[in-house]
Amino acid sequence: MWTRRHLVFAVIIFTSSLYLLSSNPHVEQVSSNLRSLTKHASSPPSPFDSLETPNANHDTQISETTLPLGAPAPGFTIFDRLYVRNGTLFAVTQHPEGYPDLIYVLSQGKNKGGPDNIDPTPREMQVITPTQAKDILGDYATVIEGTSIILYDTSQFMAHYYHWWGEIILGAMRIYSALSFIPGIETPLPVPSRLLLPNVPDMSWRDKAGVNGPLMHAAFPSSSIERSDYWKDLSDIDQTFVFERAMLVSRVAAHKSPLSSVWFKMISSTMNVTAAVDFWEPLRRRAVQNMIGYLPMMNEAGTVMSPPTSSAPIVIYVSRQGGGRRLRKEDDEDLVNGLKELEREGICELHVAKMETMKFKRQIEAVARSTIMVGVHGNGLTHQIWMPPSARSTVIEIFYPETYLHDYSMLARNMGHKHYAVWNDTTLTYPAGQWFKGVNEGTRDNFHGNSIPVHGKTVADLVRQRLRLEVIPEF
Ligand SMILES: *[C@@H]1O[C@H](CO)[C@@H](O)[C@H](O)[C@H]1NC(C)=O
Ligand SMILES: *[C@@H]1O[C@H](CO)[C@@H](O)[C@H](O)[C@H]1NC(C)=O
Ligand SMILES: *[C@@H]1O[C@H](CO)[C@@H](O)[C@H](O)[C@H]1NC(C)=O
């Protein structure tokens, strides 16, 4: 028996199936009939625009993939119109010879370091001609709008504050910013819409301290982070999707860059791609503002003007004395005394930060109010990415004498902070285009030991010099 309820239900099903059809260009005729039908039935207009003005962006003919920057940095490759179907990425081009070998783009989604070769196979990605595309991808693709960052690694080297922020996100933003130099690309560049992790099935991309996730949502509050279940959903639909713009990021591919044997870091390959000036600053400001509720402002001299105001530029000494790798006890005291002396002279305000005892928010706040960061080589120096760049901004990294790694000097270069390595009473710094040759970890007992020497006065003199760097002329 058909009741009125059944009838209403049937009408709903009928109209919604027409609605679904209406987004397909082949049934345009049907949907305009539907529109006139609905008009006659004097129903209210659709609250969304999809009935009245089919979104031309949504179903689109297969057209060619382009590389707006070319492929200047292995492991960080931007594609316009990158296709995906059944879990395989496709670049469509008449000129496959213009494409980089895919080993410089991605790898199989497997851990590094095992016995197997994990270079990419046609299952991960293919470069195909428009003719092949007709067979493989069909006639149209659904557009995934905006910029997608596809991080095509396992979580093996993700779950770490430095790896995530100092390499993956920093490298991606540096290369993304280079698009602003390409004629015809509109600026400001939009914030990436999403970060996709096709090879991460679970929470394992998150670091143990639990800071990377919250910081991501502070830095990119409207962007989503999607894991392998998203990728599988697209595969299961078994239709073609096209990323309007996608950056494929791959640590394995990045390390195939010859520059990787200069600096030994994932971002090595990005370092001689010219980045936009201050490319990090919008992200830094969003992250800081959203984490702590305000953006600390400083005056010309570096004195913090946002309450609580500081008496002078802030020097933050990131103390590791509560941890493993640390200074000789008497040298730590000597260093703090040297910096306190500067404070007494009114040259700086000293904050000794034992990060492990501070809430994460307070750590970010302390750093975002600082002009100079001093610390023993270690993850605490990753925090410099939230320190505002300025003529005086400086990172002073204490190493066991004669040892050197590039982790934090590379960050400083990207941030616009001047970096100094300190070997007891010797300071080393390198101008743009020059760097410490090689790496030197010395012996484990020294490099990671608990008796790293430092001459406090050397550091204090350096701080004094840096803070006086641009004394505003007095009349
Ligand atoms: C999708 O990919 C899987 C895994 O490679 C394969 O087994 C399956 O046959 C593919 N499905 C279609 C419809 O091509
Ligand atoms: C990039 O860096 C390498 C390594 O120092 C250098 O040899 C090369 O000329 C640089 N390339 C560009 C385009 O600057
Ligand atoms: C560190 O430098 C000071 C000042 O030059 C010197 O007296 C001290 O012996 C040095 N320490 C080490 C371990 O080299």
From TrEMBL:
Main localization category: membrane
Keyword Membrane (UniProt): yes
InterPro entries named in the record: Glyco_transf_61_cat, Glycosyltransferase_61
GO biological process, one term: protein O-linked glycosylation via mannose
Species the sequence originates in: Agrocybe chaxingu
Protein name: Glycosyltransferase 61 catalytic domain-containing protein
Membrane topology field: Single-pass membrane protein
Sequence ranges assigned to domain Glycosyltransferase 61 catalytic in this UniProt record: 161-391
UniProt feature coiled coil, ranges: none
Single GO term (MF): protein O-acetylglucosaminyltransferase activity
Chain positions covered by the region annotation Disordered: 37-58
GO cellular component, one term: membrane
Cleaved signal peptide residues: 1-23
Keyword Glycoprotein: yes
Location within or outside the cell: Membrane
Entries under Pfam families matching the protein: Glyco_transf_61
Entry keywords, A to Z: Glycoprotein, Glycosyltransferase, Membrane, Signal, Transferase, Transmembrane, Transmembrane helix
